[in-house]
Amino acid sequence: MFAICSQVAHALPFAGHALVPLACGALWWPDAELLAVADLHLEKGSAFARQGWLVPPYDSRETLSRLALAIQSTGARRVLVLGDSFHDPDGPRRLVEADRARLAALIDAADWTWIAGNHDGVSPALLGGQVADEVEVRGIVFRHVAVAGRAGPEVSGHFHPKARLAGGRGSARRCFALAGDRLVLPAYGSYAGGLDIASPDLAAALGASPVGLLPTARGLVRLDCNRSMA
């Protein structure tokens, strides 16, 4: 899991801009006053409950709390949520009132865009904000899934990248995955799993083996595929 967003931030040069991967898993673009997150998978807990898996039903509350803190700490005026915001199309209807109110307040306070995902489609539109298949900002395309073979700077989600240091015995860490001018954000959702950055599926989508980026207090730690463990 990522830590709560802090003020410690280190810029990543990307497509001629300075983007800031945050410790909580959000991507901050100061010059555009834009915050991007991916794969919230809200209401995954309630989806599991419907299948008989009894897990704590507080994943949406925890995810929204971290997102609210990220928006507050950066002062973001624009928010892009890069798909799979809910675990399934019915997720928006299952939000409890307190979580619905918190999300509504976040949407009302920013220029908010939901990117359609493969799990939730356009269903987040029920809650307000705009919905799009992709958004281009100053030459960078933001979408849910990386498009294989596409040229040009791209930021996406979908793959939930993770990595850990070779020889490490702890749990794998969610990370950003960078391959040239293509960047994949980690999953932001509390119950979201992950795909190792050494996965051939990720390399195929990005057109090259990615480097994992872990934001730390000392800077961005870079992990290549050979140092990542499944």
* Top-tier CATH class: Alpha Beta
- What is the global morphology? globular
Question: CATH fold name, please?
Answer: Purple Acid Phosphatase, chain A, domain 2
Strand adjacency order, main sheet: 1-2-3-4-5-6-7
Question: What is the CA-based Rg, rounded?
Answer: 16 Å
User: What number of structural domains do the residues give?
Assistant: 1
Between the first and last Cα atoms, what is the distance in angstroms? 16 Å
Output the helix-strand order.
EEEEHHEHHEEEEEEEEEEHEE
**Helix fraction by DSSP (H/I, runs of at least 4):** 10-25%
> Strand share of the residues?
25-35%
* Global mean pLDDT: 86
Output the structural class. Answer: alpha/beta
Low-confidence stretches: none
For the report, how would you describe the main beta sheet?
Answer: 7 strands, mixed
Give a count of the beta strands, DSSP E runs of length 2 or more: 17
Fold and architecture overview:
This protein is α/β, with parallel strands linked by helices and 230 residues long. The chain has one domain (28-227): Purple Acid Phosphatase, chain A, domain 2. Helices cover 20% and strands 27% of the residues. The chain contains five helices and 17 strands. β13 (176-179) and β14 (182-184) form a beta hairpin. The radius of gyration is 16 Å and the shape is globular. The relative contact order is 0.17. The model has no long low-confidence stretch (mean pLDDT 86).
